[in-house]
């Protein structure tokens, strides 16, 4: 599959943002697929992004970012409105994202269910192993 110029711009921007934001997955694991949502500015450059991953009993928002130059313009709410609301969860320590999620109608839960939790444990263990193998300790 050959990527078009816009997709390459999106990928470059996403990897750049992932290298700055330590809460995100390492840049070496950043991919663009059908689960990615982008918002572009007037010139076609990406300014906001979300990735939603299937976790068996629901979906997880595992990447969510808005370019710092475009924060405060409602882009997080626009991204959230594009996500299928059928049992979605997000684990974040970011107070801005927590606030946006609550304003969009999401509620805090302590436990997403056994199957979703097991899937999440497997995914996070794999991510931890990858960060150790690639010596990306700043994210641990």
Describe the structure.
By secondary structure, this protein is α+β, with helices and mostly antiparallel strands. The protein has a single domain (5-139), classed as Gcn5-related N-acetyltransferase (GNAT) (Aminopeptidase). The protein is built from four helices and four strands; from the N terminus they run H-E-E-E-H-E-H-H. The protein has helices at 5-20, 75-81, 95-103, 114-133; strands at 36-40, 46-54, 59-66, 88-89. Strands 1-2-3-4 form a four-stranded mixed β-sheet, sandwiched between helices. Strand 3, helix 2 and strand 4 (88-89) form a beta-alpha-beta unit. The longest helix has 20 residues, at 114-133. It starts with a helix and ends in a 7-residue tail after the last helix. 19% of the residues are buried. The model has no long low-confidence stretch (mean pLDDT 84).
Provide a concise account of the structure shown.
With 140 residues, the protein is of the alpha+beta class. The protein is 37% helix and 17% strand.
What is the rounded distance between the termini?
33 Å
Look at the helices and sheets and give the structural class: alpha+beta
Helix content: 25-40%
Strand neighbour order, sheet with most strands: 1-2-3-4
């Amino acid at each position: 599959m050959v990527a078009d110029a816009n997709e390459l711009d999106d990928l470059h921007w996403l990897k750049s943002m992932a290298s700055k934001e330590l809460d995100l997955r390492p840049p070496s694991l950043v991919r663009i697929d059908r689960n990615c949502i982008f918002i572009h500015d007037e010139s076609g450059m990406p300014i906001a992004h979300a990735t939603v991953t299937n976790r068996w009993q629901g979906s997880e928002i595992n990447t969510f970012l808005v370019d710092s130059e475009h924060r405060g313009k409602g882009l997080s709410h626009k991204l959230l409105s594009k996500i299928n609301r059928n049992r979605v969860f997000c684990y974040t320590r970011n107070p801005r994202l927590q606030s946006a999620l609550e304003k969009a109608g999401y509620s805090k839960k302590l436990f997403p269910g056994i199957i979703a939790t097991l899937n999440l444990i497997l995914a996070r263990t794999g991510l931890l192993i990858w960060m150790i193998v690639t010596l990306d300790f700043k994210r641990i």
